[in-house]
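Write out the bound-state structure for NAP.
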Amino acid sequence: MNNTNIVVRLNARPTGMPGREHFKICEEPLPDLQPEEIRVAISYISISPSLRMQMNARESYLPAVPIGGLLRARAVGEVVESRSSRFAKGDFVEGAFGPQSYYSGPVAGVMKIDPALAPIERYLGALGMSGLTAYFGLVHTCHPQAGQTLLVSAAAGSVGSIVGQIGKKLGCHVIGIAGGADKCAYVTNDLNYDACIDYRGEDVGQRLAELAPDGVDIFFDNVGGEILEATLANLAAGGMVSICGAISSYNDIDAICGPRNWLKLLERRATLKGFSVYDFQSDYSEALAILAGWIAGGAIKPAEHIEEGLERFGDVLPMLFHGSHRGKLILKI
Ligand code: NAP
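---
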């Protein structure tokens, strides 16, 4: 361990797409640890849509980060120094450590992870926040039943790829929405979805009417905007829409307007419900054990797309919006 920390700090607020010009790479001395603090050598950083929200001046579902501040990126690594009674040198951990080479700070919210059970980067995807979001947003929020039609947007992404596989495990008929024919082939061939609509090349509303003639029972929405509207028009009676996110509007959050056809909710006696994975913290370990069992049994195939180089943080973040990854997008240090 040398005494220098490489830190990627927010340097400007983007209008539209984020990029390397919005970050500054700083070399800073490592601080001394205070009682009950740990130092973590970070190996992998989660690249997730919430990072873009934190770059705005206005608070959204997560507090804004000040200019010069550190985005709350989740990350995994090894404890290299500890003054905490909870963690020892050599432990592997996951937490909101931020885009930097070393985290030095308190242990609140830090979870121990087991490198013998899975590669540590998986604790940022299927065995981390993405898996937990998929699990709680589908199982606890929508209560899916065998035979129901489940629709998932951003189906090839980190959360979406797991939602669809859980849906299949529970006996649902699962339809995905993704960008491009290749991604759709991945969604049906590799993720075991029953069908996938290419929103870039196909009319989503029309394809839904063909693929789900009796309507969509559950829509797990990661995207919002026109895709949400097309689905409201194709909801089954008593349908449920779980609002996980709305990535189509994260680069222009002030321009969001609600679905024009929201009265379909009344017509179909449907429910639209938002959820946050952070509301389920007391149940994380139980859910992770279930997810680990499904992965071990082959029902869920985890997928990670790994880019390399902390200095590339600002180049990798926009990949979320171009959709140039499959599964969990991760930056390796
Ligand atoms: P991800 O799905 O791995 O990546 C985002 C995907 O969104 C891209 O791969 C891209 O796929 C798609 N996309 C981007 N811009 C789009 C657009 N304009 N229209 C349609 N699709 C677009 O990201 P993730 O980490 O799994 O996050 C997915 C969603 O979950 C996000 O909305 C995020 O905010 C939300 N989330 C919510 C919670 C919660 O507690 N509620 C927790 C974690 C994440 P294509 O190539 O298919 O376009």
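---
The chain has ten helices and 15 strands.
The longest strand covers residues 37-46.
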